[in-house]
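User: For my dataset I need records formatted as: sequence, then structure tokens, nothing else. Please produce one.
Assistant:
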Amino acid sequence: MNRLQSVNLEVLKRPVVLISIAVVVVLAGVWWFAWMSPQGTKLSTVNASVSQLTQKNAQLQIQLQTVEHESKLESKYAAYLTAFSTAVPPTPDAAQLTTQIAALADSTKVNLNGISDDTIAVATPVSTIPITMTITGTGDECLNFLKGIYKMPRLITISSFIPTPGATPGSGSSVDVLTPGKLSYTFALSGEAYYSPLIDPLATSSSTTTTTG
């Protein structure tokens, strides 16, 4: 046994064996420092990047869900928003307002004797355009005009109206008191139209007064 150990020790002490062991140790060190250590650093960097990307992906998923939800709401309320922007436009547009009221007077067969809508009461978020007008026609026609105001695309609210019966017919004329809607009336109306620059981001915050005749 002692002889065997002595032989093994003698073999290990040979220069070739020692050199071989040294080469293996050096190569192992080179492999560790030149390959394994950098690769370990790269792996740590990759793992950190993967973690960051995972977090970013989670955030983007949340944002995507929010956008999808808002898109569904936008589609759902698109018609309402369109109608609202028509009823309360971003600018006063008094000229169009006058045209719409004149068209309503035409369709209800009343005479539009006068209209004033050339002033603006600027406010936030909704500004108002005070309106006063006078119409004449039969009671039914004047009431139809009043009803038509609330069916216009443009939002107009009537705050007061004063009906005044027409002149009493002269002698020889007859009036059917059972059909008062056929009698002549003059209606003095006052109310407000509305506009809001907030409806359109491109609209200016200040509006100029438009005068209509």
